[in-house]
């Protein structure tokens, strides 16, 4: 809605009085009642829209096409203005699969993957380009492992404060700790050495804090690659590494 009236004119006009607006499509001025403008401002429904001077202009505008590229795969995409306007993020996608992949990778709420995990997932493959890393996958033990290196039969779990203190109550803590124990038993059954890192000291993410845990992981990985057992981690599937 593009008003052609002043705030003073709006205040002094009666409910059924007419006020000028500019049509979003044809850019021509048209008159509409103050009552309808008020409904448009307070109710986000098509019934009370005040963007167009006629249904004809509204129909033409909704079918106008805009060209762009899929935000995820960069393929050419054509969308109507109505479809583009309906997107909360303003991004264009070629299909729902691309939209889901991009949104899942960039969402900031509702995700179980911490910033520390994402940071490690970016750096470990760069440090070890010849190793295959699985991040947050469930195929190895039918349960999620934060980091798993199949060729070394080595896994890492990054346990935050929720694994040690009843932040959401004792029942939630008990279920989480039971799940942690099941992971340890499953790793032992499948011959996977599980190293649990206590990351509860990270209350907010900073690369300098994350670097300490990357150093621990690389030290263990290097020991496995060289054929040496980690001296500080003697018990397979029951290792706990704490960082002060």
CATH topology of the largest domain: Endonuclease, Chain A
Shape: elongated
Number of helices: 8
From the 3D coordinates, which CATH architecture of the largest domain would you assign?
3-Layer(aba) Sandwich
Total number of β-strand segments? 10
Major sheet summary line: 5 strands, mixed
Q: What is the distance, rounded to the nearest whole angstrom, between the alpha carbons of the first and last residues?
A: 58 Å
CA-atom Rg in angstroms: 29 Å
Poorly predicted runs are: 230-239
Side by side, the strands of the main sheet go 6-7-8-9-10
Strand content: 15-25%
CATH class of the largest domain: Alpha Beta
Number of domains: 3
Mean pLDDT, to the nearest integer, reads: 81
CATH-defined superfamily of the largest domain: VSR Endonuclease
């Amino acid at each position: 809605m593009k008003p052609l009236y002043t705030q003073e004119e709006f205040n002094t006009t009666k409910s059924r009085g007419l006020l000028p607006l500019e049509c979003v499509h044809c850019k021509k001025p048209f008159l509409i009642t103050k009552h309808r403008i008020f409904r448009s401002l307070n109710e986000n429904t098509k019934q009370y829209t005040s963007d167009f001077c006629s249904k004809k202009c509204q129909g033409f505008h909704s079918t106008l096409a805009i060209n762009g590229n899929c935000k995820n795969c960069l393929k050419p995409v054509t969308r109507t203005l109505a479809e583009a306007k309906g997107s909360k993020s303003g991004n264009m996608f070629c299909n729902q699969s691309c939209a889901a992949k991009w949104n899942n990778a960039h969402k900031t709420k509702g995700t179980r993957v911490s910033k520390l995990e994402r940071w490690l997932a970016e750096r470990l493959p760069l440090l070890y380009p010849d190793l295959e890393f699985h991040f947050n996958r469930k195929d190895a033990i039918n349960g999620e492992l934060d980091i798993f290196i199949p060729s070394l039969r080595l896994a890492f779990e990054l346990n935050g404060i929720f694994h040690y203190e009843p932040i959401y109550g004792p029942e939630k803590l008990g279920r989480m700790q039971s799940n942690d124990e099941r992971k340890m038993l499953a790793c032992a059954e499948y011959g996977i050495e599980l190293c649990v890192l206590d990351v509860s000291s990270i209350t907010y993410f900073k690369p300098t804090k994350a670097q300490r845990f990357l150093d621990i992981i690389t030290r263990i990985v290097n020991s496995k690659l060289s054929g040496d057992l980690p001296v500080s981690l003697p018990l397979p599937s029951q290792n706990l590494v704490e960082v002060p």
